[in-house]
Amino acid sequence: MTSCRAAQLLRVVAITGIGLWSLAPIALGVATSLSTQADVQAVPARWLPRHAMLDAYRSLLGGTGDVRAGGSVSESGAFAHALWYSASVTLMSTLAILCVAISAGYAFARLRFPGRGALFWAIVATTVVPVFTVVIALFGLMADAHLIDRTLGLVLVFVSTTTPLTMWLVCNHVSELPAEPEEAALIDGCTRWQAFWHVVLPQMRSGIAALSAIVMLSVWGEFLIPLLLTSTSASKPVTVLIPEYVGKYTTNYPLLAAAGVLALLPPAVIALVLNRHIRGMLSGSF
Amino acid sequence: MDRSDAASPSGLVLERVRKEFPGGVVAVRDVSLNVEPGELVVLVGPSGCGKSTTLRMVAGLEAVTAGEVRIAGRLVTGLPPRHRNVAMVFQNYALYAHMTVRANIGFGLKMAGMPKREIRTRVNQAADILGITELLDRKPRQLSGGQRQRVAMGRAIVREPAAFLMDEPLSNLDAKLRVEMRAEITNIHRRIGAPTLYVTHDQTEAMTMGDRVAILRKGALEQIGTPLELYERPVNVFVAGFIGSPAMNLLPATLLSSGDAWYASVGGSRLLIPSKARAALQPFAGHDIVLGLRPEDFVSSEDLREGAHGVIQATVARAESLGSELLVYFTINGDTTTLPLTVRLDRRAAVQQGAPARIGVDLQRLYFFDPKTGAAIR
Q1: Which residues of chain B lie closer than 8 angstroms to A186, CB-CB?
Q2: What's the CA dihedral at A161, A167, A169, A170 to 10 degrees?
Q3: What does the pLDDT read at residue B308?
Q4: Which of A74, B20, B108, B220 could anchor a disulfide with B29, C-beta 3.0 to 4.6 Å?
Q5: What are the Cα distances from residue B190, in Å, to A79, A115, B12, B195?
Q6: In this predicted model, what pLDDT tens digit does every residue of A69-126 receive, in sequence order?
């Protein structure tokens, strides 16, 4: 009885500790984003704003130079554009990655063809290659293809880097699905493609939702590749734009924090909406 | 009678069908059989004997390595499943989980491009036959095992296929429901009339449902015949041991002759061999044979009649009352070995555990097998 209560207490302490560790930076970011530059730089440190205000958000999204927010560092609408651009690149990449990964994963799981095993592991093996080891070659390749500062360039690179792992997960998922409904569909008059469309895909709905979330979160948070392949403000996603708010001599902390909070919202919404599917996938049951 | 010679063009015919998997594993060895229109043939055998693979080759879900499959007179060996016009019921029902019962049953018709109105009519008719009309708007997860089984049947019958294939369709049901569905499937089969190939590992299902039963072992067809033929005239030790519950007692025995009388000596007992069996047994005189005794061909000592019954001396090891009958497990103490013997007796038979007993066996119901090849001697 005592050991049971002690275990429960330990669990509460552990969860609280992990929660604080994870949420404290976010809470601090939100508090900073609602403060003035003077609040942030006050000595001794002031953790909560004296008068919470949204000036930093207005400056960030409107691009107006407001003195109370600490001066203007962003062009009008640049951040809003970067948010929109990040969202569109993420959606396009996710769609492309899922199309390729689901088709390939299904084929590797269900179809039998010569060289299937070797090809599968050759593709999966690329997941162990860190991106930073190929950045120079990648930059050269994209420059030759005139894909620098182009949405297509970013999407193509995201597809090639993220698809192998996604395909692997799809392949495992399809292998665990019962083959009989699909076979019943083949006997019921379907072609392989029709059976895939009418029977397999609906069976995978939950898995696809989980994969979508994982792929979207991964693409949204990508930094190195967009940093390498974008140079104009029109082609920079939010992850590349935010570090530019750090100045050489001075930094507008409320503005920087507001950018961080806004950049955090889309992945947070994705994680919340698809939470059930992600948990299912992590527990191995989709 | 070899019915493959007289195969009807509208039936289902397998001609020397063989399945070899990569790596050289032979799952099915040159199996030939035919299923006439209106006939239900059961493929039965132990796990891994190739019965499901055979069915899947007929459905087109597995490629045939060699041989031919004909359905309704049409060679379908190389055709994909959708062009074979067969319907299949799977062990785990294989329903489309995201569709309603109505959509499940009508899916094949929809794929065939049938007008919606006609699909609706035919789905309603099938549901009516199976008594699942009130379930048509439910999803499979809202159904019990028996109801799912009916939906799977509905999906098969609604298409009016040229042949039905059933892969252990009752295995996932409880014992009571299985008995009910057995009768129901038989009735539906009679009503529909299409040739049906039914796979099971359950010999009771095979014996009660099959017009004919085909027994497979290690991919080869051991025997095909009516349930009674298989029971009465098994071609070898395997079939003899497989058909019948409890299984036939297969005991090592020696064939002895004493003047005109021939005996099978088993343990310390001697059983007089009927004169009609002697001609076939001639080559085995003085040699070992395998003696087959069905548990139901025994009588207790009270009912024993000299002349009609041979006598075996044994000891009662255990008795199980099934209510209507008594299953008694004896041991026959031979000179060097102890042999087990399972006997089915009248429920009123007096048996006492550990006590020696005299049991009578019907001498007209002895089976003899070659101990080397396992083939029946007759």
Answers
A1: 60-61, 80-82
A2: 150
A3: 79
A4: B220
A5: 74, 48, 16, 10
A6: 444 455 667 888 899 999 999 999 999 999 999 999 999 999 988 999 999 999 999 9
**Alpha carbon distance B263, B269 (integer Å):** 9
pLDDT bin (cut points 50, 70, 90) of residue B20 is: very high
Query: Is A184 an 8 Å CB contact of chain B?
Result: yes
Q: Do B107 and A194 touch (CB under 8 A)?
A: no
pLDDT at B248 over 60: yes
Architecture label for domain A78-251+264-282: Orthogonal Bundle (1.10)
Q: How close does chain B come to A100, measured CA to CA in Å? A: 24
Pairwise CA distance, residues A217 & A89, whole Å: 12
The whole-model pTM stands at: 0.81
- Residues composing chain A: 286
* Nearest Cβ partner for A194 among B88, B91, B111: B111
- Contact between chains at B94 and A178 (C-beta distance less than 8 A): yes
Rg (CA), chain B: 25
Judging by beta carbons within 10 Å of its beta carbon (0-12, 13-18, 19+), is residue A54 exposed, middle or buried?
Answer: middle
DSSP B158: T
From the list B309, B308, B344, the residue with the least C-alpha distance to B328 is: B344
Q: Which residues of A touch B112 (CB under 8 A)?
A: 189
* Residues of B whose CB is below 8 A from A189: 82, 108, 111-112
Q: Which of A186, A189, A202 sits opposite B112 (nearest CB)?
A: A189
- String of DSSP letters for B262-314: EEEEETTEEEEPPGGGHHHHGGGTTSEEEEEE-GGGEE-GGG--BTTEEEEEE
- Tell me which chain A residues have a C-beta less than 8 angstroms from the C-beta of B91: 180
The strand pair at B261-266 and B249-258 is best described as antiparallel
What is the distance in angstroms between the Cα of A271 and the nearest Cα belonging to chain B?
A: 25
Contacts of B126 in chain A (CB under 8 A): none
The ipTM estimated for the assembled molecules is: 0.86
Residue type, B33: L
Domain residue ranges of chain A, discontinuous segments joined by + = 2-74, 78-251+264-282
Three-state SS for B352?
Answer: coil
Tens of pLDDT, residues A131-169:
888 888 999 999 999 999 999 999 999 999 999 999 999
Q: Does the CB of B61 have a partner CB in chain A at under 8 Å?
A: yes
Quote the minimal CA–CA distance from A190 to chain B in Å. 6
> Which of A113, A180, A187 should we substitute to test contact with B (largest number of B Cβ atoms within 10 Å)?
A187
Which of A112, A116, A180, A188 is the best substitution to test chain B (most B C-beta atoms within 10 A)? A188
Cα(B26)–Cα(A232) distance, rounded to whole angstroms?
Answer: 65
Q: Say how many C-beta atoms besides its own lie within 10 A of residue A200's C-beta.
A: 20
**DSSP 8-state symbol, A24:** H
Q: CA distances (Å), A39 to each of A31, A36, A256, in order?
A: 10, 5, 14
Q: What pLDDT sits at residue A286? A: 45
**Residue A164: both structure tokens together:** 């192998």
| Peptide bond between residue A44 and the one before it cis (omega within 30 degrees of 0) | yes
pLDDT digits (tens, 9 = 90+) for B156-189: 999 889 999 999 999 888 888 888 889 889 988 9
Q: Do A184 and B88 make contact, defined as CB atoms within 8 angstroms?
A: yes
Burial of B356 (0-12, 13-18, 19+ CB in 10 A): exposed
A203 touches chain B (CB under 8 A): yes
